[in-house]
Design goal:
The protein is of the alpha+beta class and about 160 residues long. Helix content is about 15%, strand content about 35%.
């Protein structure tokens, strides 16, 4: 989160994840230097920003004392906004109650369909693909207290 309250997206290379887990702590604020910027690809966009910060081995993180930053930021898409995003191809974040899950099926790619509803009862479906479809733990879901609420991020809308 930028000091003016604007959310900022940053990415790291997966092989550096352990390093950044040690360097950056939750509920702390940092001043960053030594990063690069690049246009955000639509498939990796989690915020409505066109630029992503790239954190690498030259990143310097200086902890700053402040309580002015929000601890969490979410930019949920309302169900009534989803149809307007069909043609845009920007990823979305939405939330709903799981209604049904279907078995993983495979033709050319493995997929698992899941339906969710909002508080008004409007239902939408989404599909998990490949590893996400296979790794979805149906037994864990079945053992959870109902209703189960799920947040779905970095998804595209289609008919």
């Amino acid at each position: 989160m930028h000091s003016q309250g604007t959310p900022v997206q940053a990415n790291i290379v997966l092989r550096d994840a352990e390093y950044f887990d040690q360097l950056l702590q939750l509920k702390k604020a940092y001043r960053f230097t030594g990063f690069s910027c690049e246009p955000t690809d639509s498939w990796e966009r989690t915020l409505p920003t066109k630029i992503t910060l790239i954190f690498g081995k030259y990143l310097q993180a200086e902890e700053i004392a402040t309580t002015d930053f929000l601890e969490h930021y979410f930019n949920f898409a309302a169900y009534n906004e989803l149809s307007d995003r069909l043609a845009v191809k920007n990823s979305i974040l939405t939330v709903g109650r799981i209604v049904t899950t279907r078995n993983a099926t495979a033709t050319r790619k493995t997929q698992r369909a899941i339906d969710i509803k909002n508080l008004s009862g409007n239902k939408i479906g989404f599909t998990l693909w490949d590893e996400m479809a296979l790794n979805y733990n149906v037994c864990e879901y079945d053992s959870m207290e109902k209703p189960v609420i799920i947040a779905v991020s970095s998804c595209y809308i289609n008919r």
